[in-house]
Amino acid sequence: MGSSSHSILLIEGNQSDASFLVEGLRRLEPDLAEVVHVATPREARLHLMVQEFAAILLGVHRPQSGLDDLESLSEYAGKVPILLLGPDCPLELRDRFLAQGATDYLPKGAMTSAELVLLSSCLRHAIHHCRAIADLLEARLLGQHLAHHDPLTGLPNQRQFQHRLRQLISQARRNPRQIALLELNLDRFKLINESYGSDVGDELLRHVAGRLTSTLRESDTIARRGADEFTIILDGITRTPDAARVGNKLLTALSEPYQLSGNEFVVDCSIGISVFPGDGEEVDILLRHADSATSRAKECGGNSLQFYLPQMNQSAAARLELEQDLRLAIDRRELVLHYQPKLDLATERVAGFEALVRWNHPEKGLVPPDRFIPLAEETGLIVPLGEWVLNTACIQNRSWQDQGLPKVTMAVNLSARQFQVERPAEGIDRALRMSSLEPRYLDLELTESAIMTDAEVAIETLGHMRDIGVGISIDDFGTGHSSLSYLKRFPIDRLKIDKAFVQSVLTDNKDAAITRAIIGMAGNLDLKAVAEGVETFEQLEFLRRLGCDEVQGYFYGRPMPAAEACTFLAEKERSCVPRSSLLPSIN
Ligand code: C2E
Ligand code: MG
Ligand code: MG
User: Fold this and answer.
1) What pTM, to 2 d.p., does this model score?
2) Which residues surround ligand 3, an ion (CB under 5 A)?
3) Is residue 369 within 6 Å of ligand 1 at its C-beta?
4) What is the CATH number of domain 6-148?
5) By the 8 A CB rule, do 233 and 148 touch?
6) Model confidence at 97, in pLDDT bands (50, 70, 90)?
């Protein structure tokens, strides 16, 4: 006998009544899987223990025994409707049956066909009603689930998270232990969401939630706090480095490429950590401190973790002030460009300059880019700022050419955000036309991570830039994802070896090996290798022996204001070329 929700359990001591009912119901209700007949409530209880029924029909012969039978069944019947079939009875008694859990009381007279039709329709109604209640209950449970969970990822929501953290904190007050709170924020999520649509963004968030869940232990609590923010509780960590270990594990797990809608995406994250009780004893404070630490991790370039430090609160206020000032800086003409020369190692001539922005702050003095570029990227201010840099650098280069100085390239750094605006090549074209600079004298520097957010789109965008005729360099090569398989597909001209490798080529075998490999690879791919951060003659000679094409660094010249750069270019040219008398003299 298979269990079926369409089975009816008939409890009827009178055999001929039972046969009539079984036969009749089978005829009238062919959808019923079966009518199981038993003679006593005791037998019925045995069936109820092993099988599901859609309804119970209980034959009643005397009112009191009916009430007893009902009572003995109710515990086993659960939510299954019980319909009583018995002789006519006063209304009060009927009410007592209903009060005791019966769904309905139906008269059982001479067992006519009409009575059978009435019974079957009541039966159907009771089953339907019972289902509706079950559905309602399920919906309520679902509602309760939704009230505590994030509908997109299924993770607990912030409300549930705070409740849990509060519980753990009060336990930890009684039974002292440390609790780490990790706040995790995806780097550049907004960009993906805006560029590829919220469906891709949502899919990414679900993947992230899945990776978090599979990387962490079941006892850790993970919640989604906001758009691309996740919070994690590590309860009972014994030493603070344990939290760092878990954080690093998460950074690694999340930085693996994601396959979304047929595209490969690389998304890093920033993690901020605060620890109970050292960094705060209240939920709000711990969350705020984890938040400050996350901002700091982002400021450091992302893909990193930071523990909360008390001075971070101070820096949050300072940051806000800086942001407001930066908004006005372009209009107030407080930004300036310095130019750092790049030398061609074969000819010892200036191959070009890199334009590096500085902020001439009225109170703080000359602010280096590391202090405001990350903020500009985060706030979107990088787009107008970058446009100003591009225009100014192009105009400057053209102006040097107009003064009769040798024609060299001007390199301009493009941040990820500038690269991912709609049709970035148009802005470049505009800057070139406005300054009348030939495209071959402009070089764009992009980092691997800016490109690797979506490699296929990058190939197309770089293609458009290439069509214009500008040069393209990968900046800080070796520090990002270094996806070698893509390298040969990117239309690029130069690899700029990050200064971290260059500066220890003579002291660290591994850095020397990496530098050698990058130069070799660039040669094989027909790209120029540029070493940045060259500070000493020994480093320069080492790079020359490896076949490096161009160098940039303090050894030859620091980033300098336009007038100095102009002199540098003229003098360098004079010392290299005997025709120097043809060049105008620069004072
Ligand atoms: P970057 O593009 O890799 O620029 C090279 C950085 O290395 C510059 O720092 C330069 O001053 C420094 N450098 C060059 N030679 C040496 C050396 O021999 N030793 C040492 N220790 N450092 C050297 P800077 O000017 O502080 O710029 C830092 C970063 O800020 C740049 O790195 C670039 O990523 C960003 N940046 C600068 N200007 C702009 C800009 O206009 N737009 C954007 N998006 N980013 C910019
Ligand atoms: Mg650069
Ligand atoms: Mg660089």
Assistant:
1) 0.57
2) 475-476, 532
3) yes
4) 3.40.50.2300
5) no
6) confident
